Amino acid sequence: MTELIGGIVFFSVLGGFAVIALGKFGISITPFVAALGAFALGAGLAMQGIVSNYGASLSIRLHAGVRRRQHLDRAGVSGVVEQIRLPYTILVTEDGEQLMIPNREIIGQILENSFAVRLVETRILLHRATDPLNSIDVLAAELGGLDELASEPSAQIGIDEFTENGVRLSIRCWVPTRQYFQAKFRVNAHIYRTLQSAPIELGTPLQDVRLLAAS
Fold first, then answer.
1. Does the predicted TM-score (pTM) go above 0.70?
2. Residue pLDDT, tens place only, 156-198
3. How far is CA 74 from the centre of its chain?
4. Of 32, 99, 139, 199, which is least surrounded by CB within 10 A?
């Protein structure tokens, strides 16, 4: 970056001295000035994306609230913020891959920025004959002993909505951000085993089909 800036400054100074020298020799510099203006305009348009990334980097550091070691979900990708550089931000995924997102893609958009823990949310539909309050107690007791869950905030289990096919429960718990998918799969597997052993009967969508006799 230092070499690039140094080269731009060098050629700018050299061009300025060349224009002044031509004027001293009585050569009209108007065409050169016009060409220089056109070149500057083209260079400005070409550098627009780069400049916007640098400006976005400053805004990220001052206002956006994006910090290292935090989880960021943006532009269809997610990962932990490893570095915030001038032109781009580096994310590291749970698989160890590095993703570089241009900073202008971060500023001015809705960001999902979690910290050390991240939310896992699951919904299950209970059969109409199943007691939802008893199911909540069973699931809460089983999830309370899971090592994958963060101690704070504590897991939340409750009635999400009432449907014509049964009561829908919502299970919300927080897991370590860096092991999000691994912990999510373990939590869902534990919920499944709990439903099977309780047993807690799940609901299924019902549909009425009527056959009309031809007249």
1. no
2. 999 999 988 889 999 998 888 778 888 889 899 999 998 888 8
3. 3
4. 199
